[in-house]
Specification:
Two copies of one chain form a homodimer.
Chain A (H helix, E strand, L loop, with lengths): L5 H8 L3 H9 L6 H13 L6 H8 L4 E6 L6 H15 L3 E6 L4 H13 L4 E4 L9 H8 L4 E4 L9 E5 L1 H14 L5 E5 L5 H16 L9 E3 L4 H12 L7 E4 L2 H13 L9 E6 L3 H4 L5 E4 L2 H17 L9 E4 L2 E3 L13
Parallel strand pairs in A: 1-2, 1-3, 3-4, 4-5, 5-11, 6-7, 6-8, 8-9, 9-10
Antiparallel strand pairs in A: 10-12
Helix pairs in contact in A: 1-2, 1-3, 2-3, 5-13, 6-7, 8-9, 10-11
Chain A binds a DNA duplex through α2 and α4.
DNA sequence: GGTTTTATTGGGAACATTCCCAAAATATTG
DNA sequence: CAATATTTTGGGAATGTTCCCAATAAAACC
């Protein structure tokens, strides 16, 4: 099926395509009467410009790609919305790819985005990603890349994260200050920079307060929630079990909470639990989950702003930016006995 | 910055662009030796085909647009994933637009998708949408449209939904069978077809069991969660308050649950609550929320399959399909006293 | 070795648009 | 009214690719 083009309009009105183009793009050098006739005709045939042709000619798509590993959790959608709002303000469209935590899919998505000639890329990589060549392709071709949340250390590109180290440090310090001494950490895979940072925060908080690092209390897992309860049970079955658990994220902490309940453990008295992210669910359940909240929407905004700055720097003078947003410890019933269980 | 083209490769090897094109597209009529040289060179310069040029020429983008009103809740992301899996299998890319429940944004998104020449559209409209002309544009231009979840009655296009009427009917019947007599309904805006269907199911269940329709117990609201508690409180403040509440969706039901708790009402004894959708949170809270679950992932799959069938029917012989997926009532503590509160 | 067949290659149109430059039409000036 | 200035219009190149058709090169046949 043929879609109406400016040539169709030109023929119908017996004028040249140049004039039609001028009228439709709002160029001033066109007679008012002619312009009206053209606009009328365009409306009548429901003309829609062909962005493909324009992008091909101008070598700009006004489209930014956003790649995320998943978007079932609240986190990535909210980041995307933050970024999108910011990008829309500057006239950029967004195409969203989710890799389903699969490296293969991520590489395929990268190729597709490259072929579709996006102007920039905002990305959080999968937990499987060890090789970043598919992202370096963008860099080589002069397409700005901004990493967020899960960033690649080795690439000289802009990165936007929250202060994972400090958030974890605060969380663990809170557990120590409320009297816990055997604090376990259910960590993420070491492919993830934020996972490593949180582990470092955990480590340093213990050390600062003179507590030993117990390797048997540190478990790194692949974020596959189905397996979380296995690891939590393993920890609780230890001869000398932990009195507190700091997890890589809230879903894991919620699993832990459910395991603790199933085992008849009293939370927070027998086991204190702290998550990371402040998932909306964490405030709804009982006891409420103590967690490290991060400015999710702002994360997206900042990533977009950094990218926009780079898109506006046409020459190659742009230097990679590093943005670190603050986290905040939210204390709820999973670490501190609350007088009331109501909301 | 200039990206490598087949012409660059052709010049470098002193051959014609036609031969390069043939080699890269896997056309058989090219000398094996020449092909190897071309593929080597392409790999060396990290050549990426320009999809814009190909799409312009072939008049096909192999891209499907998916428009949703929001994607913070678990529902739409999961539908999108279902659809995307299915579409990827047939070699289609997906571009996702969310309208943030704004009609203006929806129209703007539709224009952008039209300009970017998507091959097909899967859509759930905003709660503000009363005029569907921006979707008729696609139809007129021969671009297949499939509505899901929130469908437009007046358009002759394919539609995929769950059985909202029956789901609501079952939910209300369950409330009646467990002894409730004054059942309130917190409904969605009447712009939404599924909202109207659920209201009809509520209505007919009451009628079937000889219960009166009490207009003061039916409130239609705009799904703005901040206001939900106002309406719930209003209902509970009635001289003759309801003993059960059926809500348009789970987030609303969760708000109601929280209001009931704040008021010191015992759920389910003094107030039974049923939601719709089976949000993951509904199983985690206490009491668990009784709700009507829908096959979310399958909804996306089916929408994609219907669209794919239409995309393969090149002539105009395709007739609109209507798919209705079954719902299932999940009974939890918010309507029936459970012996244990554990998971 | 010449002729026919087959394999391989190159040239150019087409896709829809913008933008530059020249041409034409109109308006302004002396 | 002629000369000049201004407005308005049209023609054509360019964007990167595929595909058709013709041209060339190589192989096969008599």
């Amino acid at each position: 099926m043929h879609q109406t083009t400016i040539i169709d309009i030109a023929k119908a009105l017996c004028i040249s395509k140049s004039t039609v183009s001028r009228a439709l793009t709002g160029h001033p050098n066109v007679n008012a009467k002619t312009r009206d006739r053209i606009l009328d005709m365009a409306a009548q045939v429901d003309y829609q410009r062909n962005q493909l042709a324009i992008s091909l000619l101008t070598n700009r798509t006004s489209t930014v790609g956003i790649m995320v590993p998943e978007f079932i959790s609240f986190f990535f959608p909210k980041v995307i919305i933050g970024a999108q709002e910011e990008l829309a303000r500057s006239g950029y469209n967004v195409v969203i790819c989710h890799s389903n935590e699969s490296y293969e899919t991520e590489v395929a998505n990268a190729k597709a985005l490259l072929a579709s000639r996006i102007d920039g890329l905002i990305v959080s990589h999968t937990k499987e990603t060890r090789n970043f060549d598919h992202f370096r392709s963008f860099q080589r071709k002069g397409i700005p890349v901004v990493f967020f949340n899960r960033v690649c250390e080795d690439m000289d590109v802009s990165k936007v994260t929250v202060d994972d180290y400090h958030g974890a440090f605060q969380a663990v310090e809170h557990l120590i200050q409320t009297g816990r001494r055997r604090i376990a950490h259910l960590s993420g895979p070491d492919t993830l920079m934020n996972s490593r940072s949180r582990l470092a925060g955990y480590h340093d908080a213990l050390t600062k307060h003179g507590l030993p690092i117990a390797p048997e209390l540190i478990i790194s897992y692949d974020l596959n929630l189905d397996k979380a309860n296995i690891y939590v049970n393993h920890l609780l079955n230890l001869p000398n079990p932990p009195d507190a658990l700091f997890t890589i994220n809230d879903p894991t902490a919620l699993e832990a909470l459910s395991v603790a309940k199933r085992r008849g453990l009293c939370v927070p008295d027998e086991l204190a639990i702290v998550g990371f992210s402040d998932d909306p669910v964490s405030a709804l359940i009982e006891p409420g989950l103590t967690t490290v909240s991060q400015p999710v929407h702002e994360l997206g905004q900042q990533a977009a702003q950094v990218l926009l700055r780079q898109l506006l720097t046409e020459d190659n003078t742009f230097v990679a930016e590093r943005v670190v947003l603050p986290t905040k410890l939210i204390i709820r019933g999973s670490t501190v006995q609350t007088s009331t269980n109501s909301y």
